[in-house]
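User: Assemble these into one structure.

Assistant: Restating your components, then the assembled model:
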Amino acid sequence: MKPTLTRLLAALVLTAAALPALAEQVVVYSARNEQLIKPLFDAYTRDTGVQIKFITDKEGPLMARLQAEGRNTPADVLLTVDAGNLWQAAQQGLLRPIRSKTLEANVPAHLRDPDNEWFGLSVRARTLVYNTQKVKPAELSTYEDLASPKWKGRLCLRTSKKVYNQSLVAMMIKEYGEDKTEAMVRGWVANLATSPFPDDTKAMEAVAAGQCDVTLVNTYYFGRLMEKNPALPLAIFWPNQGLKSQAAGVHVNISGAGVTRHAKNPAGAQKLIEWLSSDKAQNLFADVNLEYPVNPKVAPDKTVAAWGSFRQNLINVKEAGSLQAKAVKLMDRAGYK
Amino acid sequence: MLIALAVAVLVMVPVVVTFSSFAQVEGDILPHLAKFVLPELVGNTLWLVLGVGIGVSVLGVSLAWLTAMCEFPGRRVFDWALLLPLALPAYVTAFVAIGLLDFTGPLQTWLRESWRITGLPEIRSRGGVILVMSLALYPYVYLIARNAFATQGAIALEAAQSLGLSRTRGFFRVALPMARPWIAAGLMLALMETLADFGTMAIFNYDTFTTAIYKAWYSLFSLPAAAQLASILILFVLVTVVFEQRSRTQMRYGAVGRSAASRRISLSPALAGLAFAYAGAVLAIAFLIPVAQLALWTREVVATDLDTRYWSFTWHSVLLAGIGALMVVAVALLLAYAGRQRPGSAMLWTQRLATLGYAFPGAVLAVGLFIPVAALDNWLIDTGHAWFGFDGTEILKGTLLVMLLAYLVRFLAVGFGPIDSGLHRITRNIDEAAKNLGTGTGALLARVHLPMLRASLLTAGALAFVDIMKEMPITLMTRPFGWDTLAVRVFEMTSEGEWERAALPSLAIVIAGIIPVILLTWRGAHSHG
């Protein structure tokens, strides 16, 4: 009781930052969950002795927070999911460019900011998952094909409010232009078997139960669901593999990080991000959530590798950010809820 | 009076910040929303308000009448147990309901596979949202209406019967109209929470005004557009509050009546059985089944997820909710008391504006408070740096003060409602009598009013406590480093769709939230003699 009361008083009266820092410390604002990042930070502290303080929240509030704190922000690193959010943070002037040979070597060019303000740290593939009892893989081909009438009443989708779908549509706008993309999204909506689901897992469960035949999900949700229930009649299909246009390849997105504009310890922040992209940390970063390492030299987790290899779409993921507002409006017009 | 004004000003800070968004013009976002999004969701929102309004009124009033006025098997247990859904966040009820009742859920799967029955009504629909929100929020009406019935219902009914009205007509023509202002107070709380809700709507993918606010912010990255939409929502609520309060001017401030317990209506065996079945069904659907499902999910993850940190999460939750609830009760009492000492339209508007925080979508309120606090902090830090060589990044931001103030702004309405109506029921004759005996204002409050208000204060404190326990966006945005709570754990799990893992912290919230419900029961037992 007593120590806690003392701590409470300390928190009320003093501020942690006003106390002299004993060890080097890096402060992280993270939209990636605590259970996914804490093991990494613990490992970093063990390796380097650098203390990491972090706070989690949604991207929107974290960015508003950085904005409001301005030059007096305690944060050194912004860690978030989806390139759209990172692009937005850079756009709002919340990040600073860093020059790092390590990051340039570890992170493929299309998975980091051309202006070096943010860097991908894990890859998330958004792909097709189908019911193996009702669909033959040969029937599947591309994201665009899901708009064709043959899928009428057979498609399930997650809500358009999730940034993953917004990024996917944004990338399609980059590939096909707005008009063609809108026609495709309208086609998806026309093919829906039921109203959109709040998350990927629910959409896959509907596919497994036969409410619909195919859906669009991030692979780690598939991994998680199958781990719990291996008997489900579900399988992954990698779309857009044979295409020659710039639409070729599976759509990928990242979780990633950047150094904040007003970082108090920019050098420490950069070192942390570099470490996160290294062989040592990449498996810990990606595997804990069944994602793909961003560093091509690092092999994915066994479960993940078993889904097979695929061609990635090579358009820079920043387009997910620059075209996100367009994509959201397009989906509103197309009636995708 | 001055203190009340100071409080109102403080509470107004996020309102002003939000409304100041109109200074910024936001290109094409609002026209886009107005054309493609708003028409449907304004309809959605109105249906929701109407449906939930009817739902919570019917459930809350009927159950309150049964437990306060009638005698039937299990009545003593239902009396407090029917409050339990308060401890369960609405989004949890929603997730469980969809999990059980959707196409992929056990019920439909069983019907389909064993009986080839299909075509059940869709749970992910307008009706489903209304049902879930009504079940989650009826306790606000139940709690306040029950107090009204318990203290004046019997008198009302006696009066009606002496005029030759049947019991049923007595209920509809006398007891119900007399309790209307209190029912309205509970109803307003339920509807404000409905309007500001984001979590439940997201699970149902049901678009309301509040989901559009978040869309403008999180998807179209325009905080100003979000704030402008929020301003419209808040204005709408304010207008509704004014209308609701007009209805209260007809309130009859009867003195707190004598115990109703001795004069309970004894129901015929058939009716008593029906009452039992009805109350039991509501309790089961709104609380027991969701909690059982949570317990099942918790069992799957408890071995891996439950660690010693949960002590600190729980301690933080209870501590913050405890201090927050005390602050809410103290300030609400002050505000209500100022209204009694200096009634008038200026005071009425002060009260209205001060209690608007409850209608805000949580994250908008959080950012509306955080922006000025950060600005003040920046000024303090710069001054501190120039004068004392202060070298840090946080003075106010890193403390619990901001968090507690934010809770106060958000939940003042929850405390104010019960206390204000409680205070109105103490007749002025009592004040006069006390003054004639030479009692000063302070002593009047301490020795006369506070003891009479005990029930209202406890109600206010308990409501604020469970609401703060469940609160997410403010906690996320304003917590100092290391101050994670149970609600923060729920966020960590649900943000990547791991609902089953979120069962553990959700269940912990429910268990901790039961404490104040037990307090209310204990209070109930006393006041019912």
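DSSP finds 14 helices and ten strands in chain A.
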